[in-house]
TrEMBL record, chains A, B:
InterPro entries assigned: dsRBD_dom (IPR014720), RNase_III (IPR011907), RNase_III_dom (IPR000999), RNase_III_sf (IPR036389)
Keyword field: Cytoplasm, Endonuclease, Hydrolase, Magnesium, Metal-binding, mRNA processing, Nuclease, RNA-binding, rRNA processing, rRNA-binding, tRNA processing
Protein name: Ribonuclease 3
CDD domains linked: RIBOc
Broad class of where this protein is predominantly found: cytoplasm
Subunit organization: Homodimer.
Membership in a protein family: Belongs to the ribonuclease III family.
EC number, UniProt record: 3.1.26.3
Function text: Digests double-stranded RNA. Involved in the processing of primary rRNA transcript to yield the immediate precursors to the large and small rRNAs (23S and 16S). Processes some mRNAs, and tRNAs when they are encoded in the rRNA operon. Processes pre-crRNA and tracrRNA of type II CRISPR loci if present in the organism.
SUPFAM superfamilies with a match to the protein in the record: dsRNA-binding domain-like, RNase III domain-like
Binding of Mg(2+), residues: E62, N131, E134
Amino acid sequence: MSIFKKIFSKSRSLEDGIFFNAVEKILGFAPQNLDNYKNAFTHRSLNRLSNEGNPINYERLEFLGDAMLSSVIAAYLFTEAPHGDEGYLTKMRSKIVSREHLNELGKDLNLIQFIESKVPVHHFGENIHGNIFESLIGAIYQDRGYAYCEQFIQKRVIVPYVDISRLEGKVISYKSLVIEWCQKEKKIFNYDIFEDNAIDGQRLFGVRLSIDDKVIAKARATSKKKAEEKASQRAYFALQEKMDKK
Amino acid sequence: MSIFKKIFSKSRSLEDGIFFNAVEKILGFAPQNLDNYKNAFTHRSLNRLSNEGNPINYERLEFLGDAMLSSVIAAYLFTEAPHGDEGYLTKMRSKIVSREHLNELGKDLNLIQFIESKVPVHHFGENIHGNIFESLIGAIYQDRGYAYCEQFIQKRVIVPYVDISRLEGKVISYKSLVIEWCQKEKKIFNYDIFEDNAIDGQRLFGVRLSIDDKVIAKARATSKKKAEEKASQRAYFALQEKMDKK
């Protein structure tokens, strides 16, 4: 009996286990202290307090995560854009860590599913996605330190989204890049709409890009053109990897 | 002969050796690649270029150092001020990394002595001190990584200068704190002016604070009152350590 007791007291609750697995999948490594990640998704409306009576919510971690993100992107740009002066680096960074971009990153990871709040989640504005993306980075720093933050940002921000040419405005359209590449490689491409509906009066288009009858990327946006461009961007990054492997 | 040759080719130039030692003393650890530190003190007026033709000057490192400083201070405040919300943390950080404060830090380390420039150093404005303090942090990041940045900022910024009570405005005057402590400890204190002159039309006072006939701190400022307060602040931090040891 005592052995059973030991096992049970040490095992996580079922709920924690599910959260642990979901967070691990997003991070790409195991959390050490799950509390950090719980804090990252705790809204102030819960009025949670630490044992010392200090408020616990994601806003402090957001401050921390914002700082870590800025540093990691600064170091990345410093190395990757050796031609750029201080003004250039500052401008590029603010494009990468723009509110709009952070919201997109948070949304893509569906972080909002983890939020604990007394206020209904649909009452939050758009910025909630970016805010909890930053608080998640803060939690990673608290849990595992700077190197893990760097690794996470590399995987979730830099590799899939950061393209210096695009940020510089040199790439006008990813769709044209994809088409150009397909023509050069003698591949057949096709954009088709797999979804067309309206949520809360907002029209939403889902576009699928296939190359040689294989689906390469999907994206949703408020216009067909935007969805095509988004899918093309995703395809472009996927193709880039392929092209590099050659 | 070949042995001699080997020794000589491996040894640093005399000039580099002096610079290496001076930098090591400031950092508290040995530089790995001295070029990083040379870049941190290179003014754009020299028009230096890398082998790839990219401009080399301290401005890019300043961008990097600014980011690292913000992160390290953010993490410090996150831990040390668990009662503070996001707004509080943001405000405290901006006080610590204020232009004025960074200039003071750069000046105290006399970093300006290392600047290489075509423009005479006295033509630079006051901000040069803070700018090269930041570029030095950027160089540390490039040379040794985040942990060494953290160590340097801990030693050169946080330990000697960061006092949350003071930043919160709770401490009105360090002079009154010092006097209070001396009275409680039955110690005799004395502020005396050891210097009173004018440079470029700017009056400068040097004040020395002694406690029980031992000089505890010295400071220079543009008024007697300011110099006394500065010396008191330095003494306060020195005394704090003593008081903690009790």
